[in-house]
Amino acid sequence: MRLRCEVEVLSQLLPSCGLQARGRAAQAVVSLGRPPGGPAVALLVCTARDRSGARYKVRSAPGGDGEEGTGAVSRGARTALCPQVQNNVERLFTRFVEQGKATVRLREPPVDLRFSKANVSTLKTFLSALRLAHQGTDTALLPLSTLVAAKSSEVEKPKTKMTITSRRDYPLTKGFPSSLEHLQTSYCQLARVDTRLLSLRTLRRLDLSHNHIKQLPAALGELPCLQELDLHDNHLEAFSGALCRSGLQRCLQLLDLSRNRLRALPLELCQLRALVTVRLDDNELLRLPCRLGQLCRLRSLSAARNRLPFLPCDFRRLRLESLDLFGNPFEPPRPLEPNVQLKIPPSLLECAARATVDHRIPYGCHLLPSHLCEDLEVAKTCQCGSACLSSFIQITVTMNLHHVAHTVVLVDNMGGTDAPILCYFCSLHCYSQFLDRHLQSNG
After folding, report:
1. What is the DSSP letter of 82?
2. Per the record's keyword annotation, is Ubl conjugation included, yes or no (predicted)?
3. Taking every pair of C-alpha atoms in the chain, what is the biggest distance, in angstroms?
4. How many helices (H) and strands (E) does the chain have?
């Protein structure tokens, strides 16, 4: 019987000496078996530092001399067992067995073997076998294993981090450890995402920066724990909307798409509601998604050195800690030069959309026609709160970026922190009211 877990060996004599120092848990393989040449039962604890293992007697053979199965307090130390002792297990502590923890208290040597991070089912089976051995059950009826040294792969801690920064170090024939949580493969000249990465179910941070990747597979969104995705300095020309509709909505917190060739971002990007940091610097973006304000957890946004002429209307809903929009060719605001797209009378679709918003009717494809739901997802919002689909008046006005961010990088070399933002009106009446307020505020 073998158990893979972390083991901590504690001497019972420390409290009597006024010491409370604890041992250090180590990845180990604990075997319950019979040493060669005798009917005694023993535990063998193998660690990375002592692969041959330290042996602790569980039960002596009747009339044995006690030399087999000598216990150990630390690596390499061996203590003889007294001939009188047949049952060497003083007590089993199983209160936290459902958490994968248990303690075996031995008489000789006087130590506690503390097991942790064990598989609960395997631990219960192991303790049952240990209890039966302690009670004197015939060894032929026990699930004993051979007491042999453990393999390196069994006692080494699972690898959780891997960094590859050159093409020659990239594993072409050997796979990635399934336990990886942080993987960096930069400067490897990758033209596509390695499909082997898609099976790393515990991956939390994926850094593919400084490569030649042009497209992302939709299966990347199936990584259930991915919190950080770094695609800095690649050749991306688009970011898939399918990724934004995937499980990344629940877990992705950082997205770095800086130094690529992006001209636009999908509207679905605003469905990644867990995003805290977004970096879009040094692309060719002509506009930001119109529903950007839905990212209620977003705290840091950087879109410097793009081709943005203005910001979307929804931008004013953001509450950021830092914002960088330096180097964009923002157009001067034109509040008195409206782009009139009014349709009189409005279409039935326009009326339905406005009624849905005005009356706060919950919508979805199971309640309303799918094309109406799709239009509502991209609808503009008038100053009065009504929705605008294809009938509206559009202008650009000035907004001080400190209204949405605590720390703002200067927009230009002149020290400005103002930027133009789109503004929509559903009717001439709403626009005229805005115009009156604007003229009054400007004298």
Report:
1. P
2. no
3. 109
4. 7, 21
